[in-house]
Amino acid sequence: MSMQLATLRDLSVLYRSGSTTRTALASVDLDILAGERLAIIGESGSGKSTLALALAGLLPDNAERSGQIAWPGLGRPPVPGGDIGFVFQDPGSSHNPVLSIGEQIAEVARRHLGIGWRAAYARALDLLARVRIPQPKAALAAYAHELSGGQRQRVAIASAIAAGPRLLIADEPTSALDMVVQAEIVALLDELVRADGMTLLFITHDIALASGFADRLAVFRDARLVEAGASADVLARPQNAYTRHLIGSHIDLATPPLIVGPTR
Amino acid sequence: MSAELLTATGVSKTFASKARRVAALDNASVSVARGETLGLVGPSGSGKSTLARILLRLVEPDAGRIDFDGVDLLALNGEALRTTRKRIQMVFQDPLAAFNPRATVASALADPLRIHGLVERRQRPAAIAALLQRVGLDPGLASRAIHEISGGQRQRVAIARALATRPDLIVLDEAVSALDVSVRGRILELLVELQREEGIAYVFVSHDLAVVRAIAHTIAIMDAGTIVETGPTPDVVANPQSATGRALVAAVPRLVVGKSD
Amino acid sequence: MSLLRRILGTPEGAAGALILCVLVLAALLAPVLFPADPLSIVGPALVPPFTDPALPLGTDRLGRDVLAELMHGAGTSLAVGIAAAAMAMIAGSLVGTLAGLAGGLVDEALMRVVDAFQIVPSFLLALAFVSVTGASLPVVITAIALGAWTGPARLARAEVLSIRERDYVAAARVLGMRPLEIAFREVLPNALPPVMALSSVIVAISVLTEAALSFLGLGDPNIVTWGSMIAEGRNVLRSAPFLSILPGLALMLTVLGVYLFSEGLADALARRRSRA
CB of B172 within 8 A of CB of B204? Predict the structure, then answer.
C-alpha cells in the first residue's frame, strides 16, 4: 500500500453565525495517498470545498473544526504555500490586481525556497513556460486583468507549484471556464503533477471529468463522504445510490438525446 | 408561413472602448425553425451570448437583419417592440441574478402578467399557481422569496416567467451551466416537454456540446464572432467539419470506466 | 421591521437607538412639561443649574428656563436634521438615479450640476442661501439640503451604474417593462441601501449645520434652538459657562446617537446582503 500523505479522521466542520449552526462536514474519514490523484466529487452543499479549505488551513474564523488531520507523509504540520499549493475556482479574484503576475509567482518562490528576487523571477519565467503561457517573458510584467480566464488559471497553477509543494489542491479550477479551456487545464494539471511527483486533490462536481485522470474518487453528499475507492471500481461498481445517481445524470455525446431529430 | 420562425442575416457588432475595438460578432447568420431548438455552441468569447442578446434587442447590432415571423425585428420600437416582446423571452445563466433581489416567486411571475395586461389582478394568483405547476413546482412556493429557494427551483421559476406570455421563442443563455449536475437533466427534460406541448422554439446557447446535443435539432458553432459550422445535430457531432467543432467534441468529458494509463 | 430588530441587536445600534429615543422623548414631552413659550421669562437671570428645584438647569441672561429651552430645542434640532437629510437624500437619489439610467448628455449635465454644488463649501452655501432668502425654518432646512444632496446623488448614480448591467434589469427589459417602471421598481429600491447608510451621517451634519446657522444668528429667530442658546451664552462664557456647555453637550449627544445608530444600520444592512 502506498504511503499516506495525509489522514483525516472524524473530521467535522461547523459554521456558527448567531443562532444558526451549519454543518459543512460531518465525520469524514479519508486517506490521501502520496503521489496519487484524488478527485473529490460533490454538488453544491456537499462540503467538498470545505474539505479543501480545511486541509489548506484556510477555514474562516467562524468555522469550528473537530477531528484530526494528520500528515504522516510530512512528519510535521504543513506550511501553506510551501507544502500545499492551492488553486481557487475563480480566476478573476485569486490574483492581486495591482501586482504583476511575475511578482506574484516569484514571491511564492522567494518566501518558501529562501532564494533571492533574481532567482525567483527566473523560476517564475520557467514556470510560466511550463504552464504554456504564450510569450512568458512579456507575461512576467503583465497584470491579471490583461489575461483571459484560462490564462489566469494557468498563472494560478504556476503560483501554486512555485515552491514545489507536496500537495496541490485544485478547488473546482475549471468550473468558471468553458469546456475547451477546461480540457486544457485538466491536461496541464495531470502532466505537471506526474512530472513533479506531487499529490493532487481535485475538487469538482463533474464525475466524468474526474474519471479521465483521477486514480481515486471520493464522493461527498450533504457534508458526508458516501463512497471512496479506485476510479475504475467506483465507476464500474458504484456501491452507493447517490454515486449511481451522479453517474446516471452525466450527459455526454453518447447519452441518448431527449429529442427526435430535426424535421428538415 | 415559412418553416423558419427567426432568421438572422449578416449580424455584426463591435464593442469599442477607449482602449480597443472588439469585434464580438462578424457577419453572423442563423435561423431557427418553428417549434425546434437551435443550439448555439462555442468557446467563451465566440460571440454567442452577444448574438443571443441581439435577438432579444438587449443590444443593438451595427449591421444585419433579423426576420421574426415576417416582421423586421430590428425596425421595431416603442409599443410595437413591447408587444412583440411577448413572443420572444429569455432565461439567464445565473438564476439568482436574473431576479430582483427583493422579489418573491409570486411577484416575479406576476410581472409579465401585469405588464402585458394578460390577467386581471384577481385572477393572478390562480394564473401564477398554474404556471408553477406547469414547470413542476408546488404552487405553495409562490409566497417564498427568490433567494430562499434552491438553484434548480429558481431556474424553473425563471422558465415559468418566460412562459407567462406564451412566447413563440425562448432564448436560453447557458441556462443549465450554473446548476448541479443532477438537476440539469431534469431541467432539460422540462424544456423538451414544454417544447413538445406548446410548440415553442428555443435558441440554446452553451459552451457544452453534450448538453446542446441532448436537446438541439440544429447546431450552429461559433468562434471569434463568426458561425463556423451549421447543420443537423447528429451530423455536426458525428462529423464536425470545423476545427472549433472538433475541439468542442474532444472537450466533452467522457465517463472513463477503465482508465488507460 | 426585522431590520430594526437587527439594528437593535448590535451594541452600537442599541446604544444609538437609546440616545435617539431619549431625544425624541424630550422633544415630545417638551410641550407637555413646559407648555409655555420657552422664550418667555420665568425667573431671575443667570440662575446656576442644580440650585433651584423649580429651575433644574438654571436660567439664561434674560431669565428663560434652560431646561425648557433645551427640550424644545431638541425637537427643533431633530426635526431640522431629519427634514434636511430627507430632502437631501430624496433629491440626491432621484438625480443620481436619473443620471445613472439616462447616461449620455443627461448624465454629463447632471453631474456637472452636482460638481457645481460640491465645489462651494456646503456651510457657506447654506449661509449664503439663508442670508439672501431670509431666516425661517423651511429656508434653513432647504439651505442645509442644498449642501448635502450631492453625496447621495453620486452614491446613487454609482450604484445605478452597477445595477444597470445586472441580469434582472435585462430580464425586466426582455419582459417588456417600461423604462420608468424599471427605474422605480427594479433599480431604485436596490440602489438605496448604501444611500440609506449615508443618511445618518447627513442627519448629524444637518443638526450641526443648523446649530451653526443659529449660532450666527441666521436661524429662525422665533424658535429656540441649541445653536441660538450657545450664541446667547457666548456673551457670559466666563461667568455662566453652563449656558453654552449644556446645549453643546446636547448637540454632542445627538450626533453621537446618530452615528452609533448608523453603525448599527450599516451592520444590519451588510448582514442582510451577505445572507441573500
Answer: yes
What gap in Å lies between CA B171 and CA C95, rounded to an integer? 35
| Distance, CA of A171 to CA of C241 (rounded, Å) | 67
Q: What is the pLDDT of residue A264?
A: 45
B164-179 pLDDT tens trace: 999 999 999 999 998 9
Residues of B in contact with A48 (CB under 8 A): none
Is the pLDDT reported for residue B1 higher than 70?
no
Nearest by CB to B253, which of A44, A178, A209? A209
Q: Do C175 and B161 touch (CB under 8 A)?
A: yes
**Pairing mode, if any, of strands A199-204 and A167-171?**
parallel
Reported in sequence order, the residue ranges of B37-163 that DSSP labels E, i.e. its strands, are 37-41, 63-68, 71-72, 88-91
Among chain A residues, CA nearest to B39: A262
**Stronger pLDDT, C30 or B81, i.e. the higher one:** B81
* The predicted structure's pLDDT at residue C201: 84
Give the residue from chain C lying closest to B91, CA to CA.
Answer: C171
B1 reaches A (C-beta below 8 A): no
Question: Can you say whether the dihedral through the CA atoms of A182, A183, A186, A192 is positive or negative?
Answer: negative
pLDDT interval class at C181 (50, 70, 90): very high
Question: What pLDDT score was predicted for residue B196?
Answer: 94
> Phi, psi (5° rounding) for residue B203?
-110, 110
CA distance readout (Å), B199 to B5, B21, B71, B91, B161: 11, 40, 19, 17, 17
Query: Which element (helix H / strand E) includes B15?
Result: strand B4-16
Bridge partners, residue A87, by sequence? A170
pLDDT mean over A32-50: 93
pLDDT band at C241 (very low <50, low <70, confident <90, very high): confident
Nearest to A124 by CA among A100, A88, A146, A151: A100
pLDDT of residue C81: 87
Give which of C69, C64, C29 is closest to C250, Cα–Cα.
Answer: C69
What are residue B71's DSSP bridge partners? B68
Alpha helices in C182-241 (DSSP H): 188-215, 226-234
- Is pLDDT above 70 for A263? no
- The model carries a pTM of 0.86
The mean pLDDT value of chain C amounts to 87
Chain B nearest-CA distance from A54, in A, is 23
Query: End-to-end CA distance of chain B, in Å?
Result: 56
Nearest to C271 by CA among B149, A59, B143, A18: A18
Interface of B with A in 142-161 (CB under 8 A): 151
Q: Could you tell me if A222 lies within 8 Å of chain B, comparing CB atoms?
A: no
Digit-coded pLDDT (tens) for C70-125: 888 888 888 888 899 999 999 999 999 999 999 899 999 999 999 999 999 989 99
Is residue B105 predicted with pLDDT exceeding 60?
yes
Which ipTM did the prediction report? 0.91
| CB pair distance less than 8 Å for B115 and C171 | no
Other CB atoms within 10 A of residue A160 CB:
26
**A19 CB-contact burial (10 Å; exposed 0-12 / middle 13-18 / buried 19+):** exposed
A206 in contact with chain B, both atoms CB, cutoff 8 A: yes
- DSSP H stretches of helix in B105-208: 105-115, 124-134, 151-163, 181-198
Find which of B4, B46, B181, B244 to mutate to test the A interface (most A CBs within 10 Å of its CB).
B181
